[in-house]
């Protein structure tokens, strides 16, 4: 069924699940967006969220007959074409300005002499 996961991964999954449920609730509270969410966890447990428990989840037929077209998303919609390429930015170049005073030049030569 499900593979064994570390405690860290289990905790991360628990936090992400709770955050997702909280975000769905925020959509209703802040923007009056009705939402229905069903998740099946790797262990088989099902979590559901209904912003309106009295309103049933719209069927596929109901979503296709609405005046506004439904937007259906799949995991493929969230995979970018560049996700496999890692772009490493160039290291910043820095230029050190020349010393303005001869004292610092002689001090620098002295420090080099001591290190040698």
Q: Let me know the number of strands.
A: 2
In CATH, the homologous superfamily of one domain goes by the name: Transcription factor, MADS-box
Profile the largest sheet: 2 strands, antiparallel
The order of strands across the largest sheet is 1-2
* The CATH architecture of one domain: 3-Layer(aba) Sandwich
Distance from first to last alpha carbon: 67 Å
Protein name: MADS-box domain-containing protein
InterPro entries: TF_MADSbox_sf
GO molecular function: DNA binding; protein dimerization activity
Organism: Penicillium bovifimosum
Describe the structure.
This protein has helices at residues 7-31, 60-64, 102-115, and strands at 36-40, 46-50. By secondary structure, it is mainly α. The protein starts with 6 loop residues before the first helix and ends with a helix. The longest helix has 25 residues, at 7-31. The radius of gyration is 29 Å and the shape is elongated. Strands 1-2 form a two-stranded antiparallel sheet. Residues 57-95 are annotated as: Disordered. This is MADS-box domain-containing protein.
Please give a handful of descriptors for the protein shown.
SRF-like; TF_MADSbox_sf; mainly alpha; two-stranded antiparallel sheet; 38% helix; 116 residues; protein dimerization activity; 3 helices; DNA binding
């Amino acid at each position: 069924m499900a593979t064994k996961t570390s405690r860290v991964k289990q905790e991360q999954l628990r936090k992400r699940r709770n955050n997702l449920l909280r975000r769905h609730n925020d959509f209703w509270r802040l923007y009056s967006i009705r939402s229905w969410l069903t998740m099946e966890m790797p262990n088989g447990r099902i979590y559901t969220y209904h912003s309106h428990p009295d309103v049933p989840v719209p069927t596929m037929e109901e979503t296709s007959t609405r005046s506004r077209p439904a937007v259906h998303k799949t995991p493929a919609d969230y995979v970018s074409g560049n996700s496999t390429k890692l772009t490493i930015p160039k290291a910043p170049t820095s230029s050190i300005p020349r010393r303005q005073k001869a004292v610092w030049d002689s001090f620098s030569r002295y420090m080099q002499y001591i290190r040698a």
